[in-house]
Each structure stands twice: as C-alpha cells, then as structure tokens.
Amino acid sequence: MNDDAMAPDTWARLSTLRALVADGRAELAVSRLRRLLHDEPNLGEGHALLASTLLSLHQPEEALRAADAAVQSAPDAAEGHHLRARILLQLGQAGPALAAAEAAVAREPLVPTYQRALMRAGFAANNLDAAQAGAVACARLAPEHPDGALGEAEVARRRGRLGRADGLITQLEASHPGHSGVRRLRLAIDADLVTAPKQGFFARIAARFRRSS
C-alpha cells in the first residue's frame, strides 16, 4: 500500500506518527505504531517506519523483525529492503545485507541513499563489483557529496590500482578539504603507496611527503 491508496484516517495516523519521530518522541511513536499495526497488519509503510524508529533506538533485532514485516507486506516497495540492508549491516550479516541492498536498488535505482547502502554492503561482503556499482551511481546521482568518489577510490585501492586511487583522493582533497573520510582514505592510500613493491622511487617519496605534511 502506498500513500495514494491509503485510507484517509490511516494516512493521518501515520503522518502524526512520523511527526512524533521527527520531534524526537521515538518511544511514544513505537507504542502507537504497534497499535496501528495491530489494526492494520499489512500496512507496509507502518512496518517500515517502525523498523527505522527501532533502529534509531538501537534495537536492531526488533528493527529487523519490523523490516521483514515491511517487505512481506509490500515486497515491491524499496524502503523495506533498504531498511533490511541497513539493519543487517549493523548486525554484521554482510551477505544478506548485500542481497537486501541489491533488492532496494533494483526497485528504485535513482535514490542515492539506496546506492550508498549497496556500496557499503558490497565492501562489507568483499564484493568489489557491487561496491563499485553503488559508488559510481552515488557519484552520478549526488555529485555534491563525496561518498561516491570515496567509494570509487576505496575500490581502486583494494584492487591495487593505487595510481587511480591516488588521483581520486587528490581530487577529493581539493573539493572536500578537511573531510574526515577523505583524510582517512588518504592515509590508507599513502601507506599502500609506500609499501607497494612496484612503486617507483619518486612515488614513494611523494607519499612520504604527504604523510609528513
């Protein structure tokens, strides 16, 4: 069920609950959501909101049950699959998280948040093809944010393509100076450049210079 097909009173109740969550009253929202879902057990949006709210309350196991219910109630809706990916990642279940992230992207490929989850799940599952796909899509859909380019640089680093990784991180240092993720990845790339057996003398010197500056 989507908002357009929802009964007006149900839509109003769900909107009120979303407002409660936004106002920081998550525990009250959870209590009222459970009552709403008792009345309407097939309300996919309600299960999804419950899952995201429970996750914000650091209850990932309960959140996963709600996300599972969201997917069961509305299997064609991307949000439930995306929530499952986020929760499974938090629970350390990288393989199932990747499958859930892929399901979300398959349903709504133009949402940067879903592509970002695909990238992160790909890294967690050591599936660099999936991580690369999510990173490229992130960079295309949200070029103002560094996450996509950071992901591409990390993929290049893990694949041993240190020249490409170095070039990407250099661009990010110019566009996002001071970003903590950029700084961390720069340190990792420089460490790899120093220890890479086939790096030339000048590349190693340049890496050492960056680390000391």
From TrEMBL:
Protein name: Uncharacterized protein
Organism: Candidatus Neomicrothrix parvicella RN1
Domain of life: Bacteria
UniProt cross-references to InterPro entries, sorted A to Z: TPR-like_helical_dom_sf
Pfam families (alphabetical): TPR_19
